[in-house]
Amino acid sequence: MLTTLQTKYTDTRAADLAWALGREPLPALAVLDLQLSGARLQLRLLGASHQVLVEEDRGSCSETVACMPGSSTPLPLGVAKRVGDWEYEFAARVETLSQGSFAGRAQELLALVADHPNGLAGTFPGSPHAFTAMLAQRYEGQVRWRTWHAYPQEGQLVATRTRIGPACPPRSDPSRSETGRAPIAHVWVTNRSRTVT
């Protein structure tokens, strides 16, 4: 689904994006509700990027990537962590493109998402290549989504990829302590450089 977002386009920057888990639903300019094999998924386009809400029998999760004043977590390159009974993985990258390449990539992505039943894209008035796009699927028991955030004034495209699925059952592990408890799961967060090249 492709829509024009009824809001003024503001000159935000890719470097202003922040990431958060567990936020309450924020005011959305466009919403797409999906049912993916037992998972209820809501894709939400915000005035300053995106939010995804997931609900299943095992619980709920929300991911927000947006320009959030006061946020202390800038957009990371990657995150892997346990969220309730789920394993959550997130990755992000920033592409810097020439003006011609940017326009072509923007048209390609908007066409891909607009024609997909699980896709939602919104363009901003006044700038044809300023958009946010989202695409979701269910694959091998996991819910996955990809997003793209376009900043034509900088020639930058921020792409994110997320997957969330049931946590793997514990296996026999010689590193377990005498109490039988496994070591604390490793959580990694790497912040991308704010330097624009």
What does this structure look like?
With 197 residues, the chain is mainly beta. The protein is 8% helix and 51% strand. It has one helix and 13 strands, in the order ββββββββαβββββ. The chain has one helix at residues 99-114, and strands at 2-4, 18-21, 30-36, 39-46, 49-56, 59-66, 76-83, 86-96, 119-124, 127-139, 142-151, 156-166, 188-191. It has an eight-stranded mixed β-sheet, with helices on one face. It is globular and about 45 Å long. The two termini are 33 Å apart. Mean pLDDT is 81; it is low at 170-197.
Gyration radius over CA = 18 Å
Distance between the termini: 33 Å
Q: How would you characterize the largest beta sheet?
A: 8 strands, mixed
Mean pLDDT: 81
Low-confidence runs:
170-197
Portion in helices = under 10%
Overall body shape:
globular
Brief account:
The chain is mainly beta. It has one helix at 99-114; strands spanning 2-4, 18-21, 30-36, 39-46, 49-56, 59-66, 76-83, 86-96, 119-124, 127-139, 142-151, 156-166, 188-191.
